[in-house]
Design goal:
The complex is a heterotrimer of chains A (190), B (315) and C (182). With 190 residues, chain A is α+β, with helices and mostly antiparallel strands. Helix content of chain A is 27%, strand content 22%. The two termini of chain A are 43 Å apart. In chain A, 17% of the residues are buried. Chain B has one domain. Chain B is built from 14 helices and no strands. In chain B, helix 2 packs antiparallel against helix 11 and helix 3 runs parallel beside helix 11. Chain C is of the alpha/beta class. In chain C, the strands form 2 sheets. A 3-stranded parallel sheet of chain C has the order 3-4-5. Chain C has a two-stranded parallel sheet with strand order 1-2. Chain C has 8 helices and 5 strands; from the N terminus they run ααβαββαβαβααα. Chain C is globular and about 45 Å long. Chain C has a single domain, classed as Rossmann fold (3-Layer(aba) Sandwich), CATH 3.40.50.12280. The chains are: A alpha+beta (190), B mainly alpha (315), C alpha/beta (182). At the B-C interface, helix 2 of B face helix 2 and strand 2 of C.
Chain lengths: 190, 315, 182
């Protein structure tokens, strides 16, 4: 059994300061669920008082069935070598999230990518609206209801001859006489 | 009248020989560099093939009058300078227009070609060309000073400013100037490392550094003309060095066919061995920045040049 | 093919095509992920300089443009500009399966699927990415095409310019490109 003492300590300290839910996923990974307005206080607490001085990444997950975006702020502490992931939920119809530019400078880049790819508004964010894509006027492309296959077929000329393309996995299993197991069948093309 | 005819024919022959020798030396250098780097290289005649391909480009893009003139300046400067260098001493077929001040004259006419390229590059309006030209001219400030000091040392020692007199002094005493005034030779060789624009002083035309500097907007026929002008200039500098320091080639009075051919062979051997000095040094050196290269020239080459002048005055 | 056609190439044309075949200046521009194979092709192990192939720094000096992999619409705008700056005769070699039919990114919102519609292509090299041996065999194929006289697509681009421009403007919405003097 691994020694998860440090991770449990961090979780207890954060939970004592704020009344939030969290758990230790495994060795060196702790996650904490926060509501939208407490994010910057938790991040400042982690950064200034607990030694989690590095923001590694801000990620976004599209839960289209529940109508929400989930934002994950990944922080890292070099002395204890633990990642603490702060997770929040934002409404999908009108997504507005707080700008944490003043805590870490690199959040500017991640938030501009969120604004372009998912359409999340960050009030007070400084930077060009065009970040990676040029002359883009459709809906933000990383949302799950943007059909990228149909868009590619509509815009770009497709060279004929791709319709009878074979799936590599299916072909090789058929050729060697094996069977794809049940849990892997949901990735099949047929 | 037929004297004039022979002279004109000889002038054309000299130009063709300089062009062919310069381009072949470039090809041999590429082949040797490749072998040193453990690969096979292109053929020896690759520079000629490049020139043919560049001349057969169909469309020409130029940026105004000076853009047309820049390659023309280089070729004119190259051929004019070639006429003043004694290729084979006193041979009837290779005319050399000598007069009493021609060493000083050569010093400033060799810069003419770079001036033409600078004017043409300025016309294009590309900022890469402008930066490359300013770097090239600053490097020229670096290497011209030891070179001039070395030549001044020679002029003071032998009380003459004519190349022909220097060659005759070497023939009379039988000792090359390379051995009788070694500091001048060393200073001139170190200055010549900058003249040939090999590593480590190739920051002017470096392709990855600056989009190849002054030639960045020239393509097709203009680029081919510039390449051949560069080869003729390389031959000019090598022949000048051989005449000044290694005794020249060819006897004074023989003008038969076999004597001419023997003279050409001796000239080729001497120039090739002198050409290998910058090439060898270039194989093992990384590139200097502009201020590093000027600092390089202001240390040992300048010191050797001053010592050579003092040596010439004292002895 | 009658013997008249075969012998109608003059000596000058023969020398021009021979010299174009044996001295190719490759534009030093890596457009996609296949550019990782170019340094290994040019250096000691799979020496490409023995064919006369050299790197050139600017489009004005180059003959061959290598499109090494996928092209986003952002890159396509710049590639078109570079291609129009090169001087005739010019060649394009397309690496990888992304230029043939979209490859791995066939359903992406940002990459084009078939390069032939936007600039004319001479030789395709398939693979993902092609190894240096495959790259060299692509250059040898280009040499054969030049010798057979089939590589005049630079002039065809100028003749069919409206068709190419229509295709290009369909995917590049904000068209802010100058006219070039050919």
């Amino acid at each position: 059994m691994e020694n998860l003492e440090k991770e449990n300590n961090i979780l207890l300290e954060v939970q004592n300061a704020f009344k939030i839910k969290g758990k230790v996923i495994r060795d060196r990974r702790v996650e904490v669920m926060v509501s939208k307005d407490m994010v910057s206080s938790v991040l400042l607490f982690l950064k200034n008082q607990k030694g989690f001085i590095h923001l590694a990444h801000i990620a976004c997950i599209d839960f289209i069935e529940e109508g929400e975006f989930q934002l994950v702020y990944v922080t890292w502490s070099p002395e204890q070598k633990i990642h603490v992931m702060v997770k929040t939920r934002v409404d999908r119809e009108n997504p507005v999230m707080e700008n944490i530019d003043n805590i870490w400078d690199q959040a500017n880049t991640y938030e501009r990518e969120m604004r372009e790819m998912y359409g999340i508004e960050f009030p007070g964010l400084v930077g060009d609206h065009e970040f990676i894509l040029e002359d883009w006027d459709e809906m933000p492309p990383m949302r799950r209801d943007f059909d990228t296959h149909a868009y590619a077929h509509k815009t770009f000329y497709q060279r004929p001859g791709r319709e009878d393309a074979q799936d590599v996995r299916e072909t090789i299993t058929k050729r060697s006489g094996e069977v794809i197991p049940e849990y892997a069948k949901k990735y099949s093309r047929e | 009248m037929e004297d004039l005819g022979i002279k004109i024919l000889g002038a054309i022959l000299t130009t063709i020989m300089a062009f062919a020798v310069g381009m072949t030396y470039g090809g041999i250098t590429r082949k040797l560099t490749a072998r040193v780097q453990n690969r096979r290289g292109p053929t020896i005649w690759q520079n000629f093939i490049d020139l043919l391909k560049l001349q057969s480009k169909k469309s020409n893009i130029a940026h105004g009058f000076m853009g047309h003139m820049a390659p023309a300046w280089i070729i004119i400067a190259a051929i004019t300078t070639l006429m003043f260098i004694p290729v084979l001493n006193g041979n009837l077929w290779f005319p050399n227009l000598t007069f009493h001040g021609d060493l000083i004259f050569l010093l400033y006419i060799m810069v003419f070609g770079s001036l033409g390229m600078a004017l043409g590059a300025g016309q294009t309006g590309n900022p890469n060309s402008a930066i490359g030209v300013s770097r090239g001219l600053s490097q020229m400030v670096g290497f011209e000073i030891p070179f001039v000091l070395a030549l001044v040392g020679l002029m003071v020692q032998y009380q003459t400013t004519s190349i022909k007199d220097l060659m005759e002094v070497q023939q009379q005493t039988g000792i090359w100037i390379m051995f009788s005034n070694p500091f001048s030779f060393l200073a001139a060789i170190l200055a010549s490392l900058g003249m040939f624009r090999y590593s480590p002083f190739d920051i002017v035309g470096a392709p990855a550094e600056l989009a190849s500097g002054p030639v960045s907007e020239f393509g097709g026929k203009y680029l081919g003309t510039m390449m051949s002008g560069g080869s003729i200039f390389a031959f000019i500098k090598l022949t000048l060095f051989v005449d000044l320091f290694m005794g020249g080639a060819g006897n004074g009075s023989d003008t038969g066919i076999w004597a001419t051919l023997l003279g050409i062979v001796i000239l080729l051997v001497k120039t090739f061995s002198l050409y290998m000095i910058p090439v060898f040094y270039g194989w093992v050196s990384p590139r200097y920045r502009t201020e590093q290269s000027i600092q390089y020239f202001y240390r040992w080459p300048l010191a050797l040049g001053i010592i050579s002048v003092i040596w010439a005055v004292v002895l | 093919m009658s013997t008249n056609e075969k012998n109608s190439k003059t000596i000058l044309e023969y020398i021009s095509e021979w010299s174009r075949k044996h001295s190719l200046f490759v534009m030093a521009y890596g457009t996609g992920c296949g550019a990782i194979e170019i340094p290994s092709t040019m250096t000691s192990r799979y020496d490409a300089e023995r064919f006369g192939i050299r790197g050139a720094a600017t489009p004005r000096q180059a003959d061959v443009l290598l499109i090494t992999g996928y092209l986003a619409t952002k890159t396509l705008k710049r590639v078109i500009r570079v291609y129009e700056q090169m001087q005739n005769p010019k060649y394009v070699i397309a690496f990888g399966s992304c230029t043939i039919n979209g490859g791995m990114y066939y359903d992406s919102y940002n990459t084009i699927n078939s390069l032939d519609r936007y600039i004319p292509v001479d030789v395709y090299i398939n693979g993902c990415m092609p190894r240096p041996e495959a790259v060299i065999s692509g250059f040898v194929k280009l040499q054969e095409e030049i010798a057979a006289g089939r590589c005049h697509k630079g002039e065809k681009y100028i003749e069919n310019l409206e068709w190419y421009r229509a295709n290009q403007k369909k995917i590049i919405k904000n068209w802010r490109m100058p006219d070039y003097n050919w």
